[in-house]
Write a structure and sequence with these properties.
Layout (H helix, E strand, L loop, with lengths): L6 H11 L3 H9 L2 H16 L3 E5 L5 H9 L4 E6 L2 H9 L5 E3 L12 E7 L8 H11 E12 L6 H21 L2 H13 L4 H9 L3 E8 L4 E7 L5
Parallel strand pairs: 1-2, 1-4, 2-3, 4-5
Antiparallel strand pairs: 5-7, 6-7
Helix pairs in contact: 2-7, 3-4, 7-8
């Protein structure tokens, strides 16, 4: 069984599926992943950042959505999986950095916004990663986290059989790496969600954390500030 806290194993899994990652995302989510990222980019656009770090950027889908939504913003895409970043470069991203989320190569306060979509769940330490995100944000910075969650019943009754049974089989046929998607289901089950995630954000130094369930709670969008509300 895959150790969910072993970065080298996670890095190897994502390297193996990098070339077919986007195709698998579109098919297995029924295209909903595009809408989730678009929703996140719309929120960030209202914040009006000058410098933005998209962390765990993977193949660059969220970074591209952010660049389109915020054309005057410098969008930096960072990930620790080089094959994923190569896919991001192929899609036109130029500000791309190979980086470990627990030891980011950026100065304190370098960014106005940090985003992370479907990536915090894969990091070896959620609190340590969140503290590092807080470090690279300015005093009025903002954080957006988008990730999977387990929906409430009755949708949960349908979702769990799909997540643990049907999805790994389909993904294995698409990517040749069924194990990566068996890992996906286990990681979602173990990931803090809702109030638990908001508490984790505030424990890492953020304020005013909010959770917004999307698509019945299959994913949740979290936002938090660096500054206390006035």
């Amino acid at each position: 069984m895959i150790n969910l806290q072993e970065p080298r194993v996670v890095q190897s899994l994502f390297s193996a599926i990098a070339r077919r990652y986007d195709l698998a995302n579109r098919l297995l989510s029924g295209g909903l992943d595009v809408l989730w990222r678009r929703r996140a980019a719309g929120i960030v656009r209202r914040w009006g950042p000058r410098r933005l770090l998209d962390l765990a950027a993977g193949s660059g889908d969220l970074a591209l959505a952010l660049r389109w939504a915020c054309p005057d913003t410098l969008v930096v895409a960072a990930d620790f999986c080089v094959p994923m970043l190569q896919e991001a470069r192929r899609k036109g991203l130029t500000e791309v950095v190979a980086a470990d989320a627990l030891a980011l190569p950026f100065e304190a306060g370098a960014f106005d916004v940090v985003t992370v979509a479907f990536g915090l769940r894969n990091m070896a330490s959620y609190p340590a990663a969140l503290r590092e995100m807080r470090r690279v944000l300015g005093p009025d910075g903002r954080l957006l986290v988008l990730d999977f969650s387990v929906p409430p019943t009755p949708l949960r009754w349908i979702y769990r059989p799909y997540l643990h049974g049907i999805l790994p089989v389909l993904a294995g046929l698409l990517t040749g790496e069924r194990g990566a998607y068996e890992y996906l289901g286990r990681s979602i089950e173990q990931f803090p969600a809702g109030r638990a995630m908001c508490d984790l954000l505030e424990g890492a130094g953020f304020c005013d954390a909010h959770a917004l369930p999307l698509t019945g709670g299959i994913v949740t969008l979290y936002t938090a500030d660096c500054a206390e509300p006035k």
